[in-house]
Amino acid sequence: MNRRQFVSSSAAVTALGGALPVRIDAAPAKRALMKLGCQTGPSSDKHFQYFARYGVRNVCGYPEIAGGRLYASVDELKRLRDVAERHGISLDCIAPPFLESSHIDREKHPAIMLAQSPERDRDIDSLQTLIRNCAAAGIPSIKYNMSILGVLRTGRTPGRGDATYSTWRLKDAKPNPPLTRAGRVDADAAWERITYFLERMIPVAEEYKIRMACHPHDPGVPPEGYQGVVRVLGTVDGLKRFIKIKECPYHGLNFCQGTVSEMLANPGEEIYDVIRYFGSRQKIFNVHFRNIRGHRDDFVEVYPDEGDVDFVKAIRVYKEVGYPYMLMPDHVPEAMDDPGGLQSFAFCYGYIRALIQAVDQMS
Prior knowledge:
- The protein has about 375 residues and is of the alpha/beta class.
- It has 11 helices and 12 strands.
- About 40% of the residues lie in helices and about 15% in strands.
- Mean pLDDT is about 95; it is low at about 1-25.
């Protein structure tokens, strides 16, 4: 439209008692801040090349530690970061060589969870050193577990195609042995050990601005416990209590959405408000973005597109609360011709990456 046509058109609209239409651009939609990530190992050139192939640009890594130390040196951390960066990958998190999701009877460094002094104080000192070294190496987060029983499962269930799914059915569980070397650990004892650890660890994390991300207990067990152990981080109420023990922006969760779903009677309805609770308080530092079919005490771990949790709805909630860190697949289905689950992980990478791109365009 030239100037004469514009003036003529304006006059006509005015003569009709109207007003010129005014274009108002909608406010830009809030961007999705979360990132596709992964925590599988080994942290090697070959595996980082695999990550890069499928668009994984943020990872949790595992440094090589010399001399049997329980902490990586600054140089060891920087070497790992350099390997990642050669492939265009950011090392956003690392895991220590203890406080893993292993059963206490197989754990080489159990002192913290067994409340064994002075050994637990030496182990805590090692983790404090790792926090300081991560700060010096530019690595912003550490993930860890506070578990005695590790990951409990009762077997595998046939899935789609030739895949099989990891399964937990409490009714089929047969504790063996009836008690672990930890003996009986009631809720009070479990909370004492967790509190002892956090009171010594979180002030150092706050001083050095390193996020400490704790994984929930996988799965939750009955209130009376399992193998003599009460799993206090196996309920949503337990996780709420956990984050309040030390009020600190660097104390939070490695929020395993699969594990939290396993705590719920109806995960397909309940999980979204749980995400909102912890996400709105900025207590989610990492997400294991995996799905289940079933509910508390009876579930199988499935591909992300076939479980009871609507992943489209879930990722919209992560966007809603402004979650800015990694979404990573975990506990993927297994198949005979997929050693190490590389194909299953690749499927999950593409699925999660597409969800992030799609939710980024949603208002």
